[in-house]
TrEMBL record, chain A:
This is Putative Succinate dehydrogenase cytochrome b558 subunit. InterPro entries: Cytochrome_b-558, SQR/QFR_C/D, SuccDH_FuR_B_TM-su. One of its GO terms (cellular component) is membrane. It comes from Nostocoides australiense Ben110. Pfam families: Sdh_cyt.
TrEMBL record, chain B:
Residues 149-180 form the 4Fe-4S ferredoxin-type domain. It comes from the Bacteria. This is succinate dehydrogenase. GO terms for molecular function: 2 iron, 2 sulfur cluster binding; 3 iron, 4 sulfur cluster binding; 4 iron, 4 sulfur cluster binding; electron transfer activity; metal ion binding; succinate dehydrogenase (quinone) activity. Its EC number is 1.3.5.1. Gene3D superfamilies: 3.10.20.30, Alpha-helical ferredoxin. One of its GO terms (biological process) is tricarboxylic acid cycle. It is an enzyme of class 1 (oxidoreductase). Keywords: 2Fe-2S, 3Fe-4S, 4Fe-4S, Iron, Iron-sulfur, Metal-binding, Oxidoreductase, Tricarboxylic acid cycle. Belongs to the succinate dehydrogenase/fumarate reductase iron-sulfur protein family. Coiled coil: none annotated. The gene is SdhB. It comes from Nostocoides australiense Ben110.
Amino acid sequence: MATSTLPASTPAVRSSIGLKLLMAGSGLLFVFYVLAHAYGNLMVLGGPDAFNNYAHHLRTLGEPMLPYSGFLWVFRLVLIAALALHVYAALTLWGRANGARSTKYAVKKAAASSLASRTMRFGGIALLLFVIFHLLHLTTHTIRPQGEQPTPYANVVNSFDKWWLVLIYAVAVIALAFHLHHGIWSAAQTLGWTSTTAARRNAKFLAHFIGSLVPTAFLIPPLCILFGIVD
Amino acid sequence: MNLTLKIWRQDGPTARGELVTYQVPDISPDMSFLEMLDVLNERLNAEGKEPVAFDSDCREGICGMCGLMISGDAHGPEKTTTCQLHMRSFKDGETITIEPWRATAFPVLRDLVVDRTAFDRIIQAGGFISANTGAAPKAEAILVPKENADRAFMAAECIGCGACVAACPNASGMLFMGAKVTHLGELPQGQPERAQRVAAMVATHDAEGFGGCTNIGECSHACPKGIPLDVISQLNADMRKAKSGRL
Ligand code: FES
């Protein structure tokens, strides 16, 4: 049999499947993170004390083993590293996909794909822009439509009584919903956990469940504030 | 039936191509899609014009040689190969756009004919087993559990037509590769080379310029043999295990 020359070997992690595994691994970390974040946000419904205590507790978590805010910073560094990998893998794969079809079709139907699957790339960019805005708004307070506020609770409540701010957050949450609906299933498939019909069905169900649960939980506090149920 | 065809015409690999419009009257709904193109070509021949180049061989849906992008659907609107598609799937008076598979790894040779030897090179890299030839072993010498045999057969239905690549927004060859990895990986004969197989096939796939899978599912929908998306999961699992030394 004729043997072909082996292609120049790229490191396995830069192979298309290696990059996909990076996306899946970092993506799943974000899934756990948004679950925790959405749960934490619901503390707003418990009133100023509950929410301010929660915010304070996040900073004293692990004390005295860790310094004040220590846990939070470790957590942030892990998230930043995961984000860097997620974006790097996404851009590399996006570039390769563009290169893989240099001539486009004159007519092409999207016959089977979901809207969520087709909006992963631009949805991802929208989410990245939102994360930057969100950090400038409620972490660094560089963007401060709520003015100077004494407590975390006041920061939140005096932000989301503005309809346009709620609108920005709502759009981002919808983008997140799309990203989760396809991303969770896609991560399971990339990790090779969906090799049977039943496993595939379960992964899709889980993706739709978490993809609906997290956005709902994220939307409740801002809407409650906007409509004066919480103030 | 009277049809308007818009067909991609391109003189050679480096020539510039364009969509050319043809009117084809009096087409029987019982003709196959390729017979309809044969009718057009006979007329072009009679007029002294260059006929439209397209691939076909068995015309029975088993060899994988045919393959056209028909109004945006790989192999047309039915779940079958282009040669097994019939004109009754179209409406009288319809305009049909016919394009070659579009992928950098499948360069156009002429008109609707593309070079799919990239698939052959993926097979050469890992789509084989090593066995002694000579005396045929007894059929019952190696027992294969029914479920594994069924799954191997399901994956082995892949005819390598390339519709998965053509339909994929990323022009990825992973459904094809997944089918091969599953086909051989389900059988005892495929085990000795299992880890090298997946690594070599993926490396060749990437080097040939196919894109990465984003689990969208267009491939499986376009596949005339209905190969399911879970063979890509098996491919991913094999690659992960091969690279972590667990295969
Ligand atoms: S010509 Fe053989 S499958 Fe269509």
